[in-house]
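OP here, attaching both records as promised.
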Amino acid sequence: MLVMESVINGRKLRYYLKSGEIFMRYGNTEKWKVKKVSRDGDYLRMHIGNKRYYLHRIIYKIWNPAWDIEDGSIKNNSIDHINGHKDDNHITNLRNVNHQQNHFNQTKAKGYCWNKKLKKWMAQIQLNGKTIYLGLFVLEADARNAYLEAKKIYHII
């Protein structure tokens, strides 16, 4: 059975690749016990010592020992779920990105809205904290398509 080990918050962890389970020693015993995972909104998390960590960050740390899990700077140290599924924590689905890149990959973002005053659909996209206006559209589908095409151009990771 393939096992990877890491130390997080001063605690030694074992990650069993086949089952995806994480084990930790409790107290001074030699026994390893499975760490319980709980749900926090769309994400999975667990406590290690007195701190709460998201499971995707723990798994990324286990595979990338030099990465600093304690760096809370969300602007430059986010872990992105490539396929947009926040409970798919396979290492092949995780990557270290900055905050903006993480938002590029949002699956629920739609990039368009109804403009009541003009009675048309307005499309726009965000880049580097600035809004890029994409136009007004009679059909919702056209506004959505304008946003999706702009996403291919501006939201490249």
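Record two, same layout:
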Amino acid sequence: MTNAFSSKSQQRLETCHEDLIKIFEDVIFVRDCTIIEGRRNKGVQDEYYRTGKSQLKYPESLHNSFPSKAVDVMEYFPDKPHIHWNDRESAEDFARLVLATAESLLAHGVISHKLRWGGDWDMDGETADTNFWDAPHYELVEVK
């Protein structure tokens, strides 16, 4: 059986930049995942800031642009619980796949941005130095 996004995940992904769409359309063929959130409106962003789920106020988050230059995605497991929110090892494994997919698509000219993951904000390959762990978060970075 081939993995596919649910209609809800597909709708969320469609609010995102075409590079994010291309990355996760490739990822879903290799590993099942769910799109938690693409674009965020002011009310949602302000609530996330207020509750500490985001460090940025509206409209500073890349989730606030249209199309969104950020997306929250988690691996989807067949058995409950389907999302392993607190499994750092699993999140890191999934991120390696996502980042490798993005690197390959960039190298082949399919996308035009690098990808940053919320478990490695400085993009140095080390997760231990991350001061704000946001495992579901992926965002586009301009290529210099």
